[in-house]
Amino acid sequence: MSAPTEPKAAGPRALTWARRRRAVADFWRLYRQNRAGVFGLVILLLFVATALAAPILTPDNALSLTNAPGTPLEGPTGAYPLGTDSSGRSVLDLVIWGSRVSLTVGFWATFISIAFGTLLGVAAGHFHGWISTVIMRITDWFLVMPSLVLGVALAAVLGRSLTTIIIAIGVTAWPTTARLVRAQTLAVEARPYIERARALGGGHWHVMSRHVVPNVMPIVLAQTTLMVGTAILTESTFAFLGLGDPTTASWGATIQAARDVGAVSARMWWYILPPGFAIVLVVLAFTLCGRAIEGVLNPKLRERS
Fold this sequence. Notes:
Structural class: mainly alpha
Low-confidence stretches: none
Helix content: over 70%
Strand content: under 5%
Distance between the termini: 61 Å
Number of helices: 12
Number of strands: 0
Shape: elongated
């Protein structure tokens, strides 16, 4: 009678995926203990679902200026719960489509700023001498540059569009991430295993890609969630000042259009309050998620809470 065969040991890739699954499970277990973070996540998922379902939730002529479904500046009714704008479009439809535009700008601008900030922050922390000095002086210069001034300059050169706003936000928002990543990189490279990796022949790319970047990703993740809310708020400011695409329905553009027709003095609250409340709510959701993620990834903050 043959002896039973022993089960094969799991390979390195299977062990890696098992550790990742445990890490994700541990992350979610700690995250859901933060009630504010869970609330922010629920609100954020509702906004994302609304943005994705905007073509289904609104009629085909929801954004049409010449074939608007309602009469201009109509108060809240059963057909239009939040009234209509100066062209006769439903304000509720504008808020729904505005979530699509604002989230798109927020995510793309954040991606640009986080990518630049992480790349330059790791380089400034890893390399010393003139390379670090040049990167940090450029960072300081962009840190004091007002994003509104750059947005006005880019709008004059490139024209008013969402691309212009994304570039303006992405180019001016990366210095904060770069400084945080540089500080974390210096702390990581002061650890003994970095010196051992270099003694074993590890080059610059090996040290940065295998040791530095994985250790700075937690702070990058927390910074990303906080940056998206800031980018959405900045986009609304640009649109409110008339620097965005006039043909795009965003929350800031809706508030700017309400101001042009005197919605505040005429007490047309349904025109100006809903997009403003949407901006506050989505920024608050991203902030709560960012703080919760930061608390999960930073044990010191978790012990204080």
